[in-house]
Amino acid sequence: MQILLSLMSGVALLIWGAHVTRHGMLEVLGPRLRLVLAAGTASPARGFLAGLGVTALIQSSSATALMTSTFVAGGLVSLPAALPIVLGADVGTSLMARLLSVDISWLSPLLLVIGIALRLSGKDSLRGQAGDVMVGLGLITLALQLIRLYAAPLLQAQIVHAIFISLGNDALLALVIGALLALLAYSSLAAVLLTATLAMGGVIGPATALPLVLGANLGSGLIACLANSGAAPAARRVSLANLMFRVVGILAFLPLLDAMPWLLDRLGSSAATMAIDFHMAFNLALAATLIWFVKPVASLCNRWLPDAHDHAAPGGARYLSQGDLRHPCVALGNATREVMRIGDVIEEMLGGMKLSVAGNDRAMNARCRALDDRIDDLYSSVKMYLTGVDTDSLDDDDTARWDEIMLVNINLEYAGDIVERILADLDQRKLSRNYRFSDEGSAELLALCDMLVANLRTRLSLFVAGDRTAPAVLHECAAGFQARAERFTARHIARVAQRRTASVETSGLHLDILRELSQMNSLLCAAPAGMPGAQRSALAEDPPFLPAEHPGALHAPERLLNP
User: Fold this and answer.
1) How much is the CA Rg of the chain, to the nearest whole Å?
2) How far is CA 150 from the centre of its chain?
3) CATH number of 396's domain
4) Which residues lie below 8 Å from residue 52, measured CB to CB, with a gap of 6+?
5) CB 231 within 8 A of CB 297
6) Which of 273, 304, 335 is a domain's end point?
7) Is 136 helix (H, G, I), strand (E, B) or coil?
8) Is position 447 within any domain?
9) Residue 409 sits in which domain range?
10) What pLDDT, in 10s, does the model give residues 29-49?
11) Can you give the pTM of this predicted structure?
């Protein structure tokens, strides 16, 4: 029992060491690794090398696949361009398994001492994060030493010997156990290293080790799928393709398992290193073969995991068809429809804000605040979609339309943030304290909300129509709102001067809301500089209640991509 517990402690230490190393490396090089992966999508060869290099550093092909899936989900890269990165990541795991399988246990004390010293001296600094990497590597080498030390005596136990013999006679059972080991360890690298260490110690033979390695590769694919299970379909396609690669490789290699020991022996592999060599050969063969089939695999994944329909994902983009990017005019129309949906969500949030002004329903307030996440998603989708349009092929009118769509998209996203901020203030400063505005103050705020909804609808109608009179209409809307906001501010100050309790208690919040609503109105009434007749409204030039450093409404096209 003591030997078994000691072996289990070694396995636990191996898993934890891999986690610490991966976490430390991501802290040190996280942004740079993302840049490397993004640059790797230029060609399949560069993608393969980028995936290999990044995985060799962070020691997790699953983590590399997850990072790649974020690029695909964000529309930064196509699925076929991302899949070579995944294949390279699998080879990167094999490379690290080869390096860590070498007996360098003498390095463990040195790595631990230096790593802990760096960690304690630097903590959250770069030096401390580098210390985490060294501590993780030290724990891995120490864990492998413990596993080697306690694995050999297990052979003396008849029940353990019988279990390993049965595994050697049942490749499918060994494959399932290998997959479970990878899932439990949340790392195929840890599962492969454990298998290799047991093989080096003579605890298991090639007949058991090789299917365990195949199972670890299957487990790695399952890890990425589980981690991405709640993501958008575009992100899940990367994990699905990764799993498909593994399954195809396993199906191809399973019939060859009996011949593999002989073949690896002929290639110079020993019984001690056969598991590691097989792991490397498996992933190299997979990459060399399947890198030529990334487009068919991507098409299959797109068919099996189509973009979510409206009823499945009411908050996601509906109209941004990637195929329509070949026709810029159609793409601009798609983006326009999606921006209109952002306006609908903002109007829904404004309705919730009116209820929070008039009443004290905190649950409803929280639901309305959560709608801002939907706006953020739609805004990002539209922005990335528009950047995919070939602007060089646009004429002057379409270029002006592109600018206007981007402007309205940015301003509506900012307007959504303002409403979310007002809702949060109402929750913290009114609803949680059970305060109420004065009857007059509440009526005035509700009137401004109604006026804001009307201006929002006017802005969106002009946006869809592309009316050349839009700047004049928007200027009129802005001036009307400004005059009413100033009048309501003066009335509120008069009520405070009269020491009316409700007005005094909510005065700070009341004035903040007036300022935020005016700021939001300036965004809604902004017209792009390229639109004929466009001019800055008085509100945009000098919006009431706005701090001098506030950027105000966006007008210049060169600022569109940097809100």
Assistant:
1) 31
2) 41
3) 1.20.58.220
4) 88, 89, 91, 92, 95
5) no
6) 304
7) helix
8) yes
9) 322-559
10) 666 766 777 676 678 888 899
11) 0.58
